[in-house]
Amino acid sequence: MTNTLPAPTLKRPAVPPQGTRGFLLALLILGALLGLSALIGWGLSLLTAQVVPGAPAYLILVWAGLALLVLAPLTYRAFPWITDWFYLLPALVFVLAFTVLPVILTVNYAFTNYSGQNSGSPDSASRTAATLSADRRVVTLSELGEQTVAEYLGCAQPSCQGASLVLYDEEASSPLRQKVESVSGPQVTLSAPVPATLETVAAATRINTFGYVGLANFQEIFSKASRALWPVFLWTVVFAFSTVIINALAGLILGILLYNKNLKGRNIYRTLLFLPWAIPAVISVQMWVALLNQPYGVVNKALGLLGIVAIPWLNDPLWAKISILLVNLWLGFPYMMTATISALSTISDDLYEAASIDGASRWQQITGITLPLLRTSFTPILLSGFAFNFNNFGIIYLLTAGGPDQAGRESTARSTDILLSWGYNTAFVSSGGQNFALASAIALIIFFLTLAISLVNFRAAGVFKEARK
Q: Which residues form a coiled coil (predicted)?
């Protein structure tokens, strides 16, 4: 009698949820995995900083990566089907790091007073002489004058408990932050003795703290709307709309002319007209800056030979705007020309032959066949072109840097500044005071304006109707 062993049963893998539900569930699980890994990495980096004060900041990424390696197998054990979605992890990391996080920070800063002056860093301009007591716990600030310590530190309460004081040695090479326990006259009692790593204390300063200010940034923007927001917004719309119309007309005309199969040397013409698009915009714009120079530029030199007075292409508010449109035409018409030629290749030649047999002229063929059939192809191109030029920071920054100045305007919102360059000037240019909070509020306004204009464009173009079909 032979004993037969039962055949081993194979464990079937869990069936993953299907459809939209499965996709959303996978995103939720992977997002929780990344969030928990980041939280563990942040906690371990804080512990590391307490043990090793000089530990580099990038350790949070190292700890988070190690946590992800440990948690990924545990996630697989709980949800075996999730392996089919692990390929989304790199994409989620990049989306969270370069899209979601900047958006969250921008929205957060828009309601604060975060700037070059209120940055959470030591205020080097307010540094004052200081001496340290023998027990290394009491710091005496000797050069405050009539200002109290609480006023100097900007404390919310008279005792200044929990505030920070930055101490320097004679060389001011290694600033040390210490928490304040209480203040009495010019003396500041620290919550802990100054470590021996700072041998002597020669100076001290406060921390430029920043906090939430509610809608103050938006109130400031709209209180100065006539000097910045409205003129900049109007020029942004005019610039984007004019650029799209001018470039589309130029590209359409050249594309129709160069698509003519009877035109000799049309490939040579196409290549020559394509060159402005092939050359990097940084090089082309800098070339135009030299060409449009008022006293020495080639353009004005040529006009002088014709008896025309030198035109202030880049030095007059109106002419600077015209210069931007002309240079942007130079940069943009090859794209429209190429798009026209590509769209024309999809139109059957039989239509033109039938129209010729019926006696239609070349102009009638263009207006009756070419333009109506190009409308479908050109609608998304024109909409995307408008959205691109609405935030076309490069041409403004490289050609005019937002200038020239114009009377009655803010120094950060000059004659040719668009909304995006206005925000850039506010955040990163000295005339804007490096006001990152105000620039973040401007960015939110730009977002809502761009969203509103895009919805109007899509509705006018019938995109929503097509999507419902």
A: none
C-alpha–C-alpha distance, residues 76 and 91, integer Å? 19
- The per-residue pLDDT of the chain, averaged, comes to 86
Answer yes or no: is pLDDT of 343 > 70: yes
Nearest-Å Rg of the Cα atoms of the chain is: 32
Q: Which helix (H) or strand (E) holds 272?
A: helix 266-278
What structural domains does the chain harbor?
Answer: 19-109 (no CATH), 124-206 (2.40.10), 220-468 (1.10.3720.10)
Q: Which residue has the tokens 């959470």?
A: 120
This prediction has a pTM of 0.79
Tokens of 344: 């024309």
Asked if omega into 404 is within 30° of 0 (cis), the reply is yes
- 171-207 pLDDT, tens per residue? 777 788 888 888 888 888 888 888 887 888 888 888 8
CA distance 236 to 418: 5
* Phi-psi label, residue 265: left if phi above 0, alpha if psi -120 to 50, beta otherwise: left
**Other Cβ atoms within 10 Å of 96 Cβ, number:** 15
Q: Give the whole-angstrom CA distance, residue 93 versus residue 165.
A: 37
Residue 468 has pLDDT above 70, yes or no: no
C-alpha–C-alpha distance, residues 275 and 343, integer Å: 20
Q: What pLDDT band is residue 1 in, cutting at 50, 70 and 90? A: very low
Residue 95 to residues 37, 102, 103: CA-CA distances in angstroms?
A: 16, 10, 11
The residue type at 330: W
Beta partners for residue 188, in sequence order: 139, 183
In sign, the C-alpha dihedral spanning 189, 190, 196, 198 is negative
Predicted confidence (pLDDT) at residue 24 exceeds the cutoff of 50: yes
Read off the tokens for 264: 């000799």
- The residue with tokens 């409308």 is 375
